[in-house]
Structures are given as structure tokens and as C-alpha cells.
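My current task is to audit a protein record that another person submitted. My question to you is simply how this chain folds and whether the C-alpha cells agree. This is what I was given:
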Amino acid sequence: MDRLSVMRAFCRIVERGSFARAAEDLDVSPAMLSRDLKLLEKHLGCALLARTTRRMSLTEHGRLYYAHVQRILADITQTEDEMRGAAGRISGPLSVNAPHSFGVTVLSPLLPAFLARHPEIELTLSFDDRVVDLIEGGHDLVIRARSSLPDSALIARELAPVRQALFAAPAHLSRHGTPQTPRDLASHPAVAYLHADDASAWTLQGPEGMVTVAHHARLKVGSSLVLRDLVAAGHGIGALPDFLSKPAVSAGRLVRVLPQLELPARHVYAVTASRRGADAKVSAFVEYLRRVLTSD
């Protein structure tokens, strides 16, 4: 017996003064209501309604039970309304985890406008280039840049594409020459990203299809920011996402290598535990990121 549903049904019977009218309101049969009431009376060990063929009235126990149940149901309704209201407010703690390079170069400049718009948000922002567990980490939202995400119960929403290509410093190309074909990469030192799908090779795609090129990396780092700075300092060729490479190319610190080729596209995803569980502050932050990241 669903106690709460039976309580509500009992109140509706009393308020409507009829099993038939209450059943119509609740979209059930009068026989079902009658059965549920009998189960309730059996559970309580007393009669709640005195029924004859012509009228129905509350017993003394019925009046007492009705008064208590009204208060209980009113408290439940108030609690539910408060929870729905709280869930709809863009306020309270929001824990976000993001890759370090993306967080510093892309996410950080976007935060002031969002926080100014929602001054009741209490933001906790952490950076991690490794894949972190959303639930165990206690995060409301995890941002990841990946070519794809594994199937899971988590909900991933794509925010923006990320293009990747190979780059080198002008000084490096002056010393070692500019590669003309993928095979030429083998004669160049490389700076590798530890968290890449394959830290020992680059997979490149272009007009003639896909090619995988093994590289010799004397330097392997777990931060794309450090990788960019090492490549810009002339320590070798490295793969970089566009949000890191564009400013460095504009400043003349980097030159794109084999411009007809690029690494497989990646995407920035916002990952949450569930779509239903996402409250207003999480939804507002995800929508804000999606809008600003695709506005160019």
C-alpha cells in the first residue's frame, strides 16, 4: 500500500463527499478507492468512514485522522514547493573541474561575467588534466576535451569543437628544416603530451586520408601550457589545440607544421551526473559556456 497516495485519496473522498467524484478526480475506479480505504482502515485498526446506501460521514477516528493527514500533506506540499524553488534559483555551491590549460586560457576569462550575473553562486573550480571521477570527486560538472567519451550513465553535452595541429618555433625550423611530408617528422625532436591517446605517435588526417607517425620525444609533459612553452622555446615539434596555438602564432612564437594536416578533431564536453539531476545553477553555467564558446 502506497501510504501517501492512500492518504491523498482519503482526503479527496472526504472533500468530495463521494467515492465516485473522488475517483473521477483521481482518474481511478470507485472500486479501487473502496479497496484502498478498506486496506487503510485495516492497517489503522479502526473505521474512518461510516457509510450507508444514502450517505457517508466521518467517524470520530476519521475526523482525527483527516485533521492529521491534512497537516501532513500540507507540510509535504510546502516542502516540495520550497525544493522546487531552491532548485530553480541560480545560487549556492557549484563545483567545476576542468583541464588545466583550458581552464586557465579559456574558462578563467569567462568567469567574471557569469559570476557578476549570478552573485549568489559559490564557485569551486579545480584543474586536472587527467580524467577525474565526477561522483567521487564531488563535482557538479566536469569539463573535458576529448575526441569522444565512453558510454556511461553520465550526461555529456558538447560545448564547442577543438582543432589540433602540429607546431614548432621559427628558430627550431631554421635549425632543423621545415618538414614537407609526414615522414620528415621522424628527424625532428618532439615534445609529447602525457595524457594524449597515444603519447608516442601523432595521428594526422588530410586530403589523402589518415596517417600515423611515430615520434621521438625527449620531453614528455602532462600540461599543454608547458608543452606550448617548450615548443615555443625551440625544443621540438608538438601538437597543440587551437585555443593555445592561435595567440602564439599571432605573436610569431609558433609556426604551423604541415598545414595541410591536422590531428583528429576533439570536442569540449560538459559532463554531469544526470539531466534530471542538473539544477538551475549547473544548467545556467553549461548554457552560458555553450553560448559564449560558439559565439565566434
